[in-house]
Amino acid sequence: MDYGQKGAWARDALRNAAFAVSAVSSTSSSMLAVRDVQNNGEEGGDPLDLIPPEKLEYLLKLVRALFDARFIASCYNIAVLFTISVFAVLHWRKSRIDRRKWLARIRGRRSASVQKTTMTSTTTVQPPSSPASSSRSSPGTSTPTGNWKDNLVDLERSPLLRGRTSSLTINSTRLDRKSTIGNTVSSWLARQPPPIPTINRTLPSNGTSLFIALWILLNIFFQMLLIPLRWDYFFVFGDKMGFMFIVNLPLLYLLSAKNQPLRLLTGYSYEALNIFHRRVGEMMCFMALVHFVSMVIWQFVLAEDWMLASKTAWAYFTHPLILCGLGTFTSYELLYFTSLGSFRQRWYELFLASHVVLQIAALVFLWFHFYTSRPYVSLSLAIFVLDRLVWRLRFKRATVTAYIQVLEDGQTFLVSADWDILPRPRPSQDQPWWKSPWSLFSFFHPNKSILNGWHPTDHVFLTVPSLGGSHALQAHPFTIASAAPVINPHSTSSAAGEQQQQQPTHAWFNLLIRSYSGFTSDLLRYAQAGHARVSVQLDGPYGSSHALDMLRASGSAILVAGGSGIAVTFPLVWALLQQTNQDLLLSDAEEAEEEEDKVARRVSPSTRRQKQRVHMLWVTHSRSHRNWIPQEQFDELVALGLDLVIPEPTEDAGRPDVAGIVKGWILDAASDGLESGVVVSGPDGLNRTVRNTCADMIGEELDVRIAVEKFGW
């Protein structure tokens, strides 16, 4: 190729780059120079002819490197989609196995019930006087039935497994074996390290940290792949860093959305995904900082004078495209600082308002700053608008009349309401699903609003317009502390509007709220002023069935609550014990019952024969906290088989041996070959203690699964 042909090709390439590069990466003064070159060429002579061959060759390589870098970065989301697909397959497989175990257990219970009814025509069932009287309980650690408040035990002086020595001795060979490499790795992944010293920042489990580290390495790989490692190509590095920021935008907004497919695909709750959302946001803010610093270094340090269109700092930073870039950078950095835990806890209302305003401003600035970002900005904005305005305001919000009751300690209050579950219309039997928009809507969005019911561990966003001021625009998250209603899917109306003659399910809804500051303290003062009734808006429910599915599949269900964590564990216990018979009735009505029986029979006979054990430990700070849950409800659950442990309040007796109690329950189940499912919800210290205890048991080759329900906002 002679120089004339090369110059013609370069001229076309640079002119195309002037549109696709200078408008996109406006922080590059060299690209501004290319744009000026194009404009001057249109007016008269072509300045490209004045560029020496060696400099023209360099510009051609620079433009080619820019396009190659952007193509590589655009493939990043393919890797993200592949990773999500892998997690979806693993979740589907585990969910299917869990369902088999649960179905096998409840079918076994039905079979045993039928056999017992056949053997005796009249049977009187008396609830045990105490869970401790059962050979499957831990004597000395269970709260007896009756007035359990007057029968609290001193756990520090009670043996954990009295009367179970023979069973543990039989299985001691297994417990004493050296753990395999797989168990060692699983134990390490489940373990949670202590907080970072000095700054006292809580760390997630090692497994979560490892996943985040791998995601960071994936970004580094795409960032550095085929980047020319020369100072005269440093602009390519800074430009690609900005593009890596862009391709992460849809993931950031998808993780922040309440109504998202990732929860259904992976099984992780919004709270679990929110940890990854924060790490993605922090990484993107770091990318924006590196992009900004890199472009400044290129402009004022590395770029040669002949490449600069803006010779002064004032001309550079006041350019419209540069100003839009600065607006984007400032908006996202402010988002980072206002999202810090210390800021959210002190000024949550300001965090809510700034999060919405800054996100919209950042997307607008980015739209004008980086031309190639517009498809990603459009997708992110669509996710934000659909989640906030369409789903949450149109479909997920409901207004109810609630009652506020201040509890004994004076700092905790109960927001309660009740209503009949609204029937949801469904398509007729003879109408194909592809002709019914409602069928598709029900698949992607099965639970419309709180008026249609909720599930254990779900939470809602509460808004109380009666408080006045900015409270009408604020939505605060709270876990639903009451048991989830059992909804018969066959009691809903058909598409033709025909209502089956069945009694509607009644929902009893409770929120247990501790006064802290801001909204909660204002609502407490509002109740203390004599306002027992108030109109509230509920946005939700949101959550995941992961914890309940895990517990149902486990032979031994262990739940640990610290303080207000009872709002998570109590509905789970209620679902495990109180709803079992109702779940059996509902499962009989399913069209796929034969297939469920078929898959249930694949589970080992020992799993089908064993009755599930349910243990719950509730650690409270003061004696008045036990009034949060009515005694009658605990009595009913204990009569159904709950092994309930409520130690003396920590303000009177100090912290109980939580690790010892949980370990005892796990060993007790392991001696009979049962898998243990553990759910903990409480302060960070309690969560870490229980998690690490389970990690130790996994290292000893015991079948243990752990789920931590810790909500951070």
TrEMBL record:
Its main location: membrane. It comes from the Eukaryota. Residues 393-548 form the FAD-binding FR-type domain. One of its GO terms (molecular function) is ferric-chelate reductase activity. InterPro entries: FAD-bd_FR_type, Fe3_Rdtase_TM_dom, Ferric/Cupric_Reductase, FNR_nucleotide-bd. Residues 113-151 are annotated as: Disordered. This is FAD-binding FR-type domain-containing protein. It comes from Neurospora tetrasperma (strain FGSC 2508 / ATCC MYA-4615 / P0657).
